């Protein structure tokens, strides 16, 4: 719908050819100039092209991933050339905000409001909604809940739900790369939404610079359970639904959370976690979230830079774990297939434990 | 306290020596007869010895794990000799019941009551309470909640809480092996408790023959959220707290769950998931759980046998994933250390993506 407005016509055509050739599996026919056009379209923030590249990143097909990686290489190179004169580490032109909280805390509407307010300030905003899929059925759990009707219509917004595909932890394997893509094509803010279910909320810290924990005006057990998570991962706490009806309980929750924060070890030294009362419904105090984020960025650039490095390594090892198991489990006659089959057999016969079987295979791979 | 009552004195002494030598790291001084004594003590269901062996299984120290695996080898061999005359697959002398449900559903008191009723029937019962530990602090989340005061005092019971040590999924890496241990030393029933948090409840299916889902008398959102989990993993649903006060809401919940089950695909063909109203507090209808379990066992031996095989393989791959990453990440100069360092460097410089870095390392390990 927007893809042909204001773009270079040759890039549009080339980009279409690129994805047609990918679809037809004619990978060897993809010329270098097609790649360049795709990257041009990305840099022009063409939402159709961004979406298609995200689909390549999320694909389980290795050939797709290889194309995505080549696109990244070009994008990385150009990005560096453009920013040659100032250090990237000091600038952090794109800020990544992770937003989590229990179902029912009103995250999605809040994110839509944050996004709209940033766009009204002239920024470009990407929203990635991590949609935990059921490990059994593979189906989406959130379903349609993450549509963000208004934001999706904005030219300066890119909204994308990502299924986790059974990868535990609430954040999908390639979220970090999709964030990186959004960053390199020039979005000013990337908002990453995840549901906080148990330990999974901790994963949000592996893809964001700043974690906002959304708490509903609740009480008793519910608050106890979420308090623990809040203390461990929040850089900012937002008590949502600060409307007339809940005003009193919001204030109670704020008081309790401040008390809990006071007693626990700070996540980032020198940063006192702010606790804000907001209302997505009334659009009250929404801008406090971005203001806090920018204050954090100003004061803790070193922490953020270090964290981004750790996040990249975290991503590498998540991929390694995934690839290693897939490859070793496949019966495609790789060099360890025999030793694995042998140990699986002994395991099923209950001659050895799973640990012993795994140790035997390991000593082969590492030639101990 | 019980360890010297009615046991062979030589085995008691030898067993103590075994664990003393392990503690002193004098592994080469551990003679074969010490191993045999430890296994004798296990087979006599000495709770102190069982506990110590479980500690070896749970240990992160490789030397400890090696001793545990040797103990298993002896145990497996003896078990087979004892059961030479009848096929193990057809007998399933030990039944494994997984019990899950949201915090507050009253799982622990229910399990204690189930355990006591089985013991009163002359059975020997092991209870493994999976205690999800915080991924950040490593601390226990359940804390003291899983003590099972009465059951712990019974000579025929073995109660053991196991921390998950940050392994996502609610079931720890070695739960399956601890279950196997309990089985091979002759417990009639192993009850495995886990908290149902999000997707983690699915993991309970990797260690049990029969999954009991405990539902409190709740309503609205809460029930909606748990219903999804119930439909996917339950072999039996138990609505707890069927006491005068909640009687009506229990019946409503039962009705809703039956409705949901009616609409969803059965987990096991030919098995209609029973929904029982029970009360741990009043000790009402507790025995229905074991009765249903035995009915399941009679009718679906083939399914259970097949599932146990899959569980062993699941355990193998869980260990493989864990070991591979630990080993590859370690800087102990293994054969892939150079290629990893090189790719980590390019990754941090943002020349390549995490996926590309992982692919490069993979092609070295598999010599593609």
Automatic annotation (TrEMBL), chains A, B:
One of its GO terms (cellular component) is cytoplasm. One of its GO terms (molecular function) is GTP binding. InterPro entries: GTPase_ArgK (IPR005129), P-loop_NTPase (IPR027417). Coiled coil: none annotated. Belongs to the SIMIBI class G3E GTPase family. ArgK/MeaB subfamily. This is Uncharacterized protein. It comes from Euplotes crassus. The lineage of its organism: Eukaryota, Sar, Alveolata, Ciliophora, Intramacronucleata.
């Amino acid at each position: 719908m927007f893809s042909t407005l204001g773009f270079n016509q040759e890039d549009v055509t080339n980009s279409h050819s690129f994805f047609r050739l990918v679809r037809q599996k004619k990978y060897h026919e993809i010329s270098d100039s097609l790649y360049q056009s795709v990257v041009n379209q990305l840099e022009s923030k063409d939402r159709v092209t961004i979406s298609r590249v995200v689909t390549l990143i999320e694909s389980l097909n290795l050939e797709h991933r290889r194309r995505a990686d080549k696109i990244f290489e070009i994008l990385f190179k150009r990005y560096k050339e453009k920013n040659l004169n100032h250090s990237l580490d000091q600038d952090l032109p794109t800020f990544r905000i992770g937003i989590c909280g229990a179902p029912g805390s009103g995250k999605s509407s809040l994110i839509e409001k944050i996004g709209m307010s940033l766009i009204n300030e002239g920024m470009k905003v990407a929203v990635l909604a991590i949609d935990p899929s059921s490990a059994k059925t593979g189906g989406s759990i959130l379903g349609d809940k993450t549509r963000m009707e208004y934001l999706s219509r904005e030219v300066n917004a890119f909204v994308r739900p990502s299924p986790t595909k059974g990868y535990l932890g609430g954040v999908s394997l390639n979220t970090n790369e999709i964030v990186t893509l959004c960053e390199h094509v020039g979005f000013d803010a990337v908002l990453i939404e995840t549901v906080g279910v148990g330990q999974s909320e901790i994963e949000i810290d592996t893809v964001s610079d700043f974690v906002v924990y959304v708490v509903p005006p609740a009480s008793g057990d519910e608050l106890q359970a979420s308090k623990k998570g809040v203390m461990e991962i929040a850089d900012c706490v937002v008590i949502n639904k600060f409307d007339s009806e809940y005003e009193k309980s919001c204030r109670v929750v704020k008081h309790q959370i401040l008390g809990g924060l006071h007693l626990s070890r700070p996540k980032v030294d020198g940063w006192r976690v702010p606790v804000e009362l907001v209302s997505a419904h009334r659009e009250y105090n929404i801008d406090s979230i971005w203001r806090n984020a920018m204050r954090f960025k100003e004061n803790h650039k070193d922490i953020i830079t270090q964290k981004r490095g750790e996040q990249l390594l975290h991503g590498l090892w998540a991929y390694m774990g995934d690839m290693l198991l897939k490859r070793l489990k496949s019966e495609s006659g790789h060099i360890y297939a025999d030793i694995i089959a042998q140990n699986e057999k002994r395991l099923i016969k209950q001659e050895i434990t799973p640990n012993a079987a795994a140790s035997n295979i390991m000593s082969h791979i590492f030639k101990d």
